[in-house]
Amino acid sequence: MDAVRTRVAIVGAGPAGLLLSHLLARAGIDSIILDARSREEIESTIRAGILEQGTVELLDDVPGSRARTVGSRHDGIELRFDGVGHRIDFAGLVGRSVWLYPQHEALRDLIAARLADGQDIRFGVTAREAVGAESDTPTVIATTLDGEELEVSADFVVGADGSRSVVRTAVCGSHGGHFREYPFGWFGILCEAPPSADELIYSNSPDGFALISQRSPSVQRMYFQCDPDADPDALSEAQIWDTLQRRVPGATLHEGPIFKRDVLRFRSFVARSLTRGRMAIVGDAAHTVPPTGAKGMNLAVADVVLLAEALESLLSGGDASLIEIFDERASARIWKAQHFSWWMTSMLHAVPEASDFDRRRQLGELRTVVESEAGSAYLAEAYTGWPL
Ligand code: PHB
Q1: Domains of the chain
Q2: HEC string of the chain?
Q3: Would the pTM count as exceeding 0.85?
Q4: Which of 46, 47, 50, 191 has most ligand 1 atoms within 8 Å of its beta carbon, as the pocket-test mutant?
Q5: Is the distance from the beta carbon of residue 170 to the nearest atom of ligand 1 less than 6 Å?
Q6: pLDDT tens profile 206-260
């Protein structure tokens, strides 16, 4: 058994864990990050693509961040329904924008910057258990790639370890949470083709929802609403293109070879509590949102900003007042993002059991949003992100 000691033990080298170690290092607080995955796996797993303006501003402080150079600024999105596209002009409505920058690229930047700064990141180390939340030395018990046991004791333990969080169990038990499941998921593809439009298209059609997103000038990411149990390999490329084209009536998509496909399940979840003694959970460990509002990674970043501030005053100033209210402060934004993600999802998707009334009401809702400056401004404000 190997034992190490640090000030903050962080489980998870995703956006939340890496950004937290960066902010703590800025405040002179050492940390160790553990992640079960290899660096290659973390840097190549395809995840979300939209960064709020506040997220990009935080990444500006990370040496070598390419969010503004490789990523591209988007000043609006298109909402499409009844065969017509309507632009939501973020810049004009709220003076803010978002950046299209794939999460794994942001992770590559963060990992390189943290390692260059001397950060201890242990890849391939699986946290099995977090213990001692109510003590002064909370500890993570982990297994290394060689099967050795590793104990990391700290002044504080943070679970940034995703939706199957081990730290969450220590903070609020294995069942503690608010949970909602949806009767649909997304069938996602990556294809080699030029962009079909300048901005992302969120399309409501009688056959169901589609999202036309992008990755680069030559690679596009697209999704269409599907059964959550759909088999990603069951459709031919021709069937996929036929489905996508029918779901954006009035527009024509540029087609190309599909080189990746996956099915995403939709869940809304918020853990019953985010802290216990000297442990906290952030990001997907603490909450999950359906992807329609593009909030997942951005919400993780917002948690981390609050937690870094609270840990700095606890560990450098001996002041526990901010950590005591961390749950309450983080929850305010988490529930706004839960509402926004649920709202975008329910406004845009075809519900399998929907009546004619439900369908017409939904179109009335979409019309309200695009025809009212107040309605469009709410969408723009929430999508580009509330101030951090
Ligand atoms: C993506 O590009 O993967 C993406 C963009 C916007 C969303 C969800 C996913 O709302």
Answers
A1: 2-74+100-179+268-343 (3.50.50.60), 182-267+353-384 (3.30.9.10)
A2: CEEEECCEEEECCCHHHHHHHHHHHHCCCCEEEEECCCHHHHHHCCCCCEEEHHHHHHHCCCCCCCCCCCCEEECEEEEEECCEEEEEEHHHHHCCCEEECCHHHHHHHHHHHHHHCCCEEEECCEEEEEECCCCCCCEEEEECCCCCEEEEECCEEEECCCCCCCHHHHHHCCCCEEEEEEEEEEEEEEEECCCCCCCCEEECCCCCCEEEEECCCCEEEEEEEECCCCCCCCCCHHHHHHHHHHHCCCCCCCCCCEEEEEEEEEEEEEECCCEECCEEECHHHCEECCHHHCCHHHHHHHHHHHHHHHHHHHHCCCCCHHHHCHHHHHHHHHHHHHHHHHHHHHHHCCCCCCCHHHHHHHHHHHHHHHHCHHHHHHHHHHHHCCCC
A3: yes
A4: 50
A5: no
A6: 999 999 999 999 999 999 999 999 999 999 999 999 999 999 999 999 999 999 9
